[in-house]
Every structure is written in structure tokens, then in C-alpha cells.
Amino acid sequence: MATNLVAPFHLCQLAHPLLKASGRGSIVFISSTAGLLAIPFVSAGINQLTKNLACEWAKDNIRTNSVAPGGTNTPLTKVSGKKEQCCVSIMSRVPAERMAEPDEISSVVAFLCMPAASYISGQVIAVDGGYSVCGF
């Protein structure tokens, strides 16, 4: 298993008995739209872990999903110089023509944890203003 997946996988294994005992467990990973597109040197490991656990743990009534945010307006996205040019280039391909606000990401995560989402499992939901479907 890839090194970057060891920690999330082990945390899930530790949580499995508690999630199973709850009778209605839900895991929501935070991924990236980079895992949905053919971007060199970017792994889609969390997305695949999402799908594998959804299949394996469905019998225990545990759902697993992932939210893949695009550019999000946070202090970490306040960049300058060369990184700023890269961000401008990426954002020019977002049909919504803006970055997401943190509450737009967190509301999808909250929804996936609710009983209303009880039949959603194994999905990677892009919250990216249309970036992942826009093309080049």
C-alpha cells in the first residue's frame, strides 16, 4: 500500500469496530480534484481507498465517500510569485470563475454524514465549480 495511504487506512481499521457498532457508520475522506484528472505525479489513492472500503464494509452498514475540493479560498491559497501564476492558470479553467468558500466544501461533507445520504456510498464528489468536467 502506498505510504500516503497507510495512515488513513489504519485510522479506518481502528474506527471500524465503533462504526460497525453504531449500526450506521460513515467515513468521509477529503481528496482532491487532482485525483480525478490525469495530472502527472498525483496519486488517486484516497479515491480508490474510498471505493474499496465502500465495497468491503457495506455488509457492516458502513458507508465510505470522498469529497474532492477544487481551489478553496483559505489562508493557504494566499500565494505569491510563481505559485500565483499557476493558480491563475488553473482558475481560468473553472467554469464558476471563482474559488470555493470553505462552507461550500464542509456542507457537502456534513450532508454525506446525514441519514439523508444513507444510500450514497463509494462516491468521490467533486466540489470544484466544474473544473473536473470542463476540459482544456
TrEMBL record:
Alphabetized UniProt keyword annotations: NADP, Oxidoreductase
Q: Name one GO molecular function term.
A: oxidoreductase activity
Q: Which domain of life is it from?
A: Eukaryota
Q: Does the keyword Repressor apply?
A: no
PANTHER family, alphabetically? TROPINONE REDUCTASE (PTHR42898), TROPINONE REDUCTASE HOMOLOG (PTHR42898:SF28)
Its family remark reads:
Belongs to the short-chain dehydrogenases/reductases (SDR) family. SDR65C subfamily.
Q: What is this protein called?
A: Tropinone reductase
The scientific name of the source species is Linum tenue
